[in-house]
Every structure is written in structure tokens, then in C-alpha cells.
Amino acid sequence: MEAMAILRLALIFSILTSLSLLAGSSPSISPELQIVTAERRIDLTSHIVKVFLTLKVENIGESPASEVLLSFSPAEADRLALVKAAAVAGKKKKKSYLPLEVKPTDLPDGPNGTKYYLIHLLKPLGKSEAISLEILYIFTHSLEPFPAEISQSESQLVYYRDSAKILSPYLIKQQATIIKTPTSRVESFTRVVPTDRANTELRYGPYEEQPPYTYSPVIVHFENNNAFAVVKELVREIEISHWGSIQVTEHYELVHAGARHKGVFSRVEYQSRPSHSGASSFKHLLAELPPRVHSVYYRDNIGNISSSRLRTNFKKSELLIEPRYPLFGGWKSTFVIGYGVPLEDFLFEAADGTRYLNYSFGCPLVETVVEKLTVKVVLPEGSKNPSAVVPFPVEERAERKYSYLDVVGRTVVVLEKANVVPEHNSPFQVYYQFSPIYMLAEPLMLTSVFFLFFMACVTYLHLDLSISKIKET
Asked: Coil, strand or helix: which one is 329?
């Protein structure tokens, strides 16, 4: 009997331990939530798909809820570049938006491989309380050219695949989806009653009382002649000099990711009929640079490209660049942009003496996707204890670089991120410690070299190296 009692206690203890481990391994998500209203607006006017989701979430359970769950299909999760959320306070003109933390979860996949993200609320949502959320998420490589190849005189048509109904782990009492296309030319679209179309907008819904994980696939086939500018790799080097300037060098590998060009290219037709020939191609790119830039250059493997224009003011600088040839689908271009900015605009000193660089992360080219971005911050020689603060997850490592007159080399903070969109152009900081005595290292080295050279010259001039004849006695 005692053995049976001990066995029962051991079994109960193991069950409790397992439950506690399960509770600690996954975030606590209240299943007693429902979405009262949901409106999703999908912007397809560019090759970067932006989704604006407005939710009114209500707690119908007894216990408070501190997180709200977002769901994405496996295909969406692979192309997801950014997720932002904010709580809405106030009404109409007095609305304010409070940013919320959004993170991927370690929960197991849901039905059909559904992936989850968690929105952390600023304060728990009590019983019968509701909150309005504004959510933005961005997808890349979500538009599929069809046909995959077009001639110079054809427009570009693309497919967009999604669901007419919002994928969610919660019951949605009322919802609607609005899809906005660049033009009114829509070849075809899937109808899910009710479906309405007006000019450039396609509306699915409203749909009532949709259960969790409802999915209704739709395909929209439409015209999109916008520039599908994709940077395969961008290496951005920011070199700090305490002598008064920051030098930035950016190496681009650009490709047109739209429908591939077929046939031969006729420049005569391209220039004589600019509105019809090569409608989906692009020959200009706009780079938004910091104010007060100087020493700007733009070149490729052949040499300097003079077909660029720079406009500067006290707020920003715009560099309009033109590659040597227009880019059609599948064509590539490799080039370098370089410029300098004043040190006092971006380098600061904290109260404890720590210096830090405050610069913009991301790609300066407008409406461009970067598949791989590498930012290298080259610190002055003698810098110690570097650390980076970036508002989103990145891979960080350290390197060492040797430049002119360097003795021990310079520390390089390397930040890498994949799938970068314009919304990633947020400030980041690199902190480091630096002693001003190191600024005298190079001048002292040059002074010593010149002094030794001068002493060697003086010694040489005072030496008598002539060969004299020995007198015979």
C-alpha cells in the first residue's frame, strides 16, 4: 500500500512538473478573445505589398488578456519583411497611436502550417473590455509576373494570391478586405460573394460570424508597370574620422525583378514612344541622402557616371541617378554611391564620455527591396567596447580593418539583415569608447618619420665618404 501511495505521488508530481514546463515554454494567450470588427486594406500599387489591418478586439472571458495573436500562412511568413502594431486611443481628430511590441512566438504551427506573431498590450484587457489596434505588415516578392516574359512593347501583368477572409485564431464577427491596384486594368479576379469592384478598388465582404482559421483563397490578375527594383546585395560602409567627417560608401547589385524581357531591345522605339515602349522598365532611381552631403560620386565598373542630379536643402538631399542603360525585367546593374557628411551631425557624446553614432539603417533608394543588407561601421583606431542598438533584429559581428598609417587596425561593427524594405530606414546607434590621445598617433608617427628622415639626411651630408690616395713615405 505504501508503495502504491508513493507511486501515485510520483505520478502526480511528474504531471505537475510537465504542466509547469509547458506553461513556461510558451506564452500565455487567452483563448477568450473575439474580433468585433476587422478591416484589411491591401496596397498593390507598388511591388512591395503593404497591408493595413484595423481590429477591434474584445475580451469575452473571465481572466485578463495581455497578448493578441496574429496569424500568417506559411507562404506569407516566408515573405514577411516587417510587422508593426499600435493601440488607438481617442476618437476622430483626437486620435493617438501608442506603439506596441510585436514578436514571433515559439508556439507550434497551427492548422495548415499557420505561423504566429504576438502583439503585447500595454495593459491587460479585462473582462468585457475592448481595444482598437492598427497593424501594418509588409510582404516582398508577393507579386508573380504572368506572363513571365514580355516584349518591349507589352505591359506587365502580375498575379496576387491571398484570402478574401482574414486568417485569424479568433472568431471574427464582421470583416471586410479592400484591395487597391495601380490602375483600373484588372484582367480577372476570384469572386467570393459579396464582391464589389469600383475603379482601382476591389472589395471582399462584409462577412459575418467567421469562425477561427477561415481561409478563402483568391487570385487577382492585374496590370502593374511600376519599377520592380530589387537590390540583391547592398554593402554600406560608414567610416568615422574624428578629424571632422564621416565617409559613406555603398556598393549596389541591382536587378529588375519583374517579367523578363524577351526579344531584342530597340533604343529608337524606346525613345520615340516612351509611353508605350518599355512601360515596365525604369531608367531613374531616387536616393534620399542626409542633408549637408558633400563629395558625392556615382560610378560603375566602367567609371564615373555623370548623368545624375543632386538637390540639397537643410532638411534632406536627393540624388537622382540614371544607369547607363534602362533596366528591363531580368537586367542587372552594379554601381557605387559615395558621399561625405559632417561629423557633428551624426556623432555625439554621452554624459559618461561614451561616443555614439546615430545614423539611418536601410537603403536610401526609394521603393526598393534589399535582399541582403550589410552595414559596416568603421570606428577610429583605438576605439574600445563597441556595441550597437538597432530597433529590429539583426545579425551582429566584429571585424578589423587596416587603413593608411594604422598600427593596430580599426574595429568594424558589422550588422546584417535580410529582406529590408523602406520602412526599415530607422535610426540606429553604435556606441564606443575613445581616448583623444589616439588622435595624436598618426601626427606623431608622421612627425617621427620626417624627423628621422631629416636626421638621416643631415648625417649623410656630414659624412666624408670620398676615397683619398694614400701618400707614400
From this structure: coil
Cα 114 from Cα 108, distance rounded (Å): 9
Q: How many CB atoms lie within 10 A of CB 460?
A: 9
Angstrom distance (rounded) from CA 225 to CA 280? 4
Q: In what order do the strands lie in the sheet with 80-89?
A: 65-72, 115-125, 96-104, 80-89, 130-139, 49-59, 33-43, 171-180, 201-210, 195-198
Helix (H) or strand (E) holding 96: strand 96-104
Long-range contacts of 440-447 (CB under 8 A, 24+ apart): 441/381, 441/382, 441/407, 442/405, 445/405, 445/407, 446/405
Residues in a beta bridge with 119: 68, 102
- Which residues are paired to 370 by β-bridges? 231, 420
Q: How many CB atoms lie within 10 A of CB 52?
A: 14
> Residue 363: which residues within 8 A CB-CB, separation 6 or more?
231, 234, 370, 373, 420, 422, 424, 425
Between the CA of residue 13 and those of 5, 6, 24, what are the distances in Å?
12, 10, 16
Identify the residue whose cell numbers are 516574359.
149
Q: Which domains, ranges and CATH numbers included, belong to the chain? A: 28-223 (2.60.40.1730), 229-438 (2.60.40.1730)
Joined together, the cell numbers standing for residue 227 give 519599377
Interval 161-177 mean pLDDT: 95
Which are the contacts of 185, defined by CB distance < 8 A and separation ≥ 6? Answer: 155, 222, 223
Closest CA to 49 of 132, 151, 158: 158
Does 411 score more than 50 pLDDT? Answer: yes
Q: Which amino acid is at 156?
A: Q
Of the listed ranges 192-201, 298-307, 328-337, 357-366, the least confidently predicted one is: 298-307
Cα–Cα distance, 301 to 283 (Å, whole number): 18
Strands 369-378 and 229-241, how do they pair?
A: parallel
pLDDT in tens, 278-295: 888 888 899 999 999 999
Distance between CA atoms of residues 269 and 278, nearest Å: 9
How, if at all, do strands 171-180 and 33-43 pair? parallel
Task: Fill in the amino acid letter for 126.
Answer: G
Chain Cα centroid distance, residue 314: 26
How far apart (Å, rounded) are the C-alpha atoms in residues 161 and 75?
10
Query: How far from chain centre, in Å, is Cα 15?
Result: 45
pTM over 0.70: yes
Distance CA 69, CA 33 (A): 10
Q: What is the dihedral of CA 107, 108, 111, 112, to 10 degrees?
A: 120
Give dist(CA 83, CA 101) in Å, integer. 10
Give the C-alpha separation, 313 to 297, whole Å. Answer: 18
